[in-house]
Amino acid sequence: MRILLKTREDRMPTYIENLRKRREVPAVTKTEFATFASGVPADHRILVFEGRDDKIAYAHWLRRIANDFRYEALIRHNKAAVLKLHESLSGDLTGLSRRALYFVDRDFDDLQGHATSTAIFMTDCYSIENYCVTTEVFEDVLRDEFHCNGINEARAELLQLFRDVYGDFLMKTKPLNLRIYIARKLAISQDDKLPSRLNQIAAVGLHRVDAVEGRLSETVLLEREPTEVEAQALTVEFEKLEPGARYRGKFALMFFVRWLELLRIERLGNLSGIFAAYGQPQFKVRGDFSFDVLVSRVSPPPGLKEFLEHATFGDSQRTHA
Fold it and tell me: Which tens digit of pLDDT belongs to each residue from 40-70?
């Protein structure tokens, strides 16, 4: 039986084919964008988002700071695709690039090595979900959803309870966030998706949070384990992050939704006396703590207004130059 060994020449067509495919991707992306743009009125900007939730969040914020801003949303499904589209249009000479603005989450990998641009807005926290999990949003929920009006001392106690339990959650999930941070910084691929259920990362109660059993290496599967030297260096950097703003936002939102659900049960039943000063609510406590509802209470992120003003007036100046 003969064993045929593939030589470099035998492999060359496949290599060239793959290289050609990689080179063709930006062109395809540019063509898709041109097709999309052809159906958008000329006086509308095209805002490119990572996902559906980003579109919803920015719609709320734009209504607050630029109600007359006209745009159409284009969803690319992840940050890499958003940045790739920006890159593919950056050398365009047809005017397509001037129509697009790009919006991405900071995450742990910022712009993934791409150059900064006046056309790219990046959140100052991990992701848009982090903006939902704040004392300001919680105060709004207490007032409007839990109908806790006019008793400031008791509300202050509830705010402190939120700070304490949320801080406990961030501490319990710190090792998980560190592992993700190290993997992102070293560009280590994951072998599976990140945890998507709260019970995979923590056990959340009304007054405390407990860690869940299990090894981090099993919770977040990596293509390879970081070396001790790599981990030590990046841990020093990680310790400088502000947990509430810079830890993974989807984890924070899962916590907040669950904790609000527990607080609603307490509000309706006053099981431990935490709402004793309020009495029974006069109105229905609906319990809709979805992302769509919470993000409507969030103030526009820092820098967004200035970003839009620069994009609008900057284009006007270029047009009349």
Answer: 999 999 999 999 999 999 999 999 999 899 9
Exposed / middle / buried, residue 255 (Cβ in 10 Å: 0-12, 13-18, 19+): buried
CA 130 – CA 218 distance, rounded (Å): 25
Listed residue (295, 291, 278, 301) closest to 142, CA to CA: 278
Burial (CB count <10 Å: 0-12, 13-18, 19+), residue 265 = middle
What is the torsion angle, in degrees rounded to the nearest 10, for the CA atoms of residue 36, residue 40, residue 42 and residue 46? -70
With contact defined as beta carbons under 8 Å apart, do 33 and 100 qualify?
yes
Residues 6+ apart with CB under 8 A from 243: 167, 170, 171, 174, 177
* Direct distance between the N- and C-terminal alpha carbons of the chain, in angstroms, rounded to an integer: 75
Q: What's the CA gap between 243 and 179, in Å, rounded?
A: 14
| Residue-wise DSSP of 109-164 | TTTTTPPP-TTEEE-SSS-GGGGGSSHHHHHHHHHHTS---S-HHHHHHHHHHHHH
Query: What is the phi/psi pair of residue 20, to 5°?
Result: -65, -40
Q: Which residues contact 181 (CB under 8 A, 6 or more apart)?
A: 108, 234, 238, 241
C-alpha span between 258 and 295 (Å, rounded): 16
Q: What share of the chain is helix, strand, coil (3-state, %, to 5)?
A: 55, 10, 40
Partners of 204 in the beta sheet? Answer: 209
* 181-190 tens-digit pLDDT: 999 999 999 8
List C-alpha distances in Å: 95 to 36, 98, 320.
14, 6, 15
Give which of 185, 182, 178 is closest to 201, Cα–Cα: 178
Could you report the per-residue pLDDT of 161-217, keeping only the tens digit for each?
A: 999 999 999 999 999 999 999 999 999 998 888 999 999 999 999 999 999 988 888
Q: Which two tokens stand for residue 298?
A: 């969030």
